[in-house]
Design a protein that fits this description.
The structure is a single chain. By secondary structure, this protein is an alpha/beta fold. It has 11 helices and 7 strands. It has a 7-stranded parallel sheet with strand order 3-2-1-6-4-7-5. α1 links the parallel β1 and β2. The C terminus is likely disordered. One of its GO terms (cellular component) is cytosol. Belongs to the class IV-like SAM-binding methyltransferase superfamily. RNA methyltransferase TrmH family.
């Protein structure tokens, strides 16, 4: 059974970037969303740049693999689909797409793709845009249309990632479900608190009521911290409230049962 190969991940191309810090921040944005291939066209301060590493905040693999080119044409020579990011068309007639639309195209077409970003101060020049097949423009506040380089990269990388099955870990995945004995302890504490208050009456309905309570308490998939927190709440409700000024010992954190 044959399968269609997944399209290659897009290349991020920074044309004449000015500051090493911005290159590092762009690399960080890339790796956040699963992109690792960075190409630099004539970086102003040369490459490697010592300021890029700290700004990358751990995205060293992107910086280590970064390739340097003299011209944009050389940087995208192996790419069949080139997208130039710019806030205006600069007199060049090209299809204009949002980051989401461009990313959908990347996922649906064969061949390598590149997202091209211009220098921080001036953006891409007309000759740079002319090399592209399409233009990416971000819908933005017309009264304040200033995006920095890393922001522009992260917008495109994020939209691409939405079609790449990247999954953000949830709290439940980071904290596994509590073991059964912890759940049993919490349920027993609930029942012990409710029994003397007549909750399980009449006796003919007690078994069904207990079963419903158990279903409610096991449904959320409590983790260890949540079970401990709920048992602390129950222990607080069990305590006899002492009148103010009795000189008694203040309540302590309940132990796990």
């Amino acid at each position: 059974m044959s399968t269609t190969p997944a399209p290659a991940r897009p290349v991020i191309v920074l044309v004449r970037p000015q500051l090493g810090e911005n290159i590092g921040k762009a690399a960080r944005a890339m790796l956040n969303f699963g992109l690792t291939e960075l190409r630099l066209v004539s970086p102003r301060d040369g490459w490697p740049n010592p300021s890029a590493g700290p700004a990358a905040a751990g995205a060293d693999v992107v910086l280590e693999r970064a390739a340097v080119f003299e011209t944009l044409a050389e940087a995208v020579a192996d790419c069949a689909h080139v997208y130039a990011t710019t806030v205006r068309k600069r007199g060049v007639t090209k299809p204009v797409l949002t980051p989401a639309e461009a990313s959908a195209e990347v996922h649906g077409q064969p061949g390598r793709s590149a997202f091209v970003f211009g220098p921080e101060r001036s953006g891409l020049e007309t000759d740079d845009v002319a090399l592209a097949r399409a233009i990416i423009t971000v819908p933005i506040n017309p009264e304040f249309g200033s995006l920095n380089l890393a922001q522009a990269v992260i917008l495109c990388a994020y939209e691409w990632s939405k079609g790449a099955a990247l999954v953000q870990p949830t709290v439940e995945e980071l904290l596994p479900p509590a073991p059964q004995d912890e759940l049993e302890g919490m349920i027993a504490q609930f029942e012990a608190l409710l029994e003397p208050r007549g909750y399980f009456r009449p006796p003919s309905r007690a078994a069904a009521t207990r079963r419903t309570l158990r279903n409610m308490l096991t449904k959320p998939g409590w983790n260890h911290l949540e079970v401990r927190t709920m048992r602390g709440v129950l222990s607080a409700l069990e305590r006899r409230i002492e009148p103010a000024g009795d000189g008694g010992t203040p309540p302590t954190e309940p132990e796990e049962g």
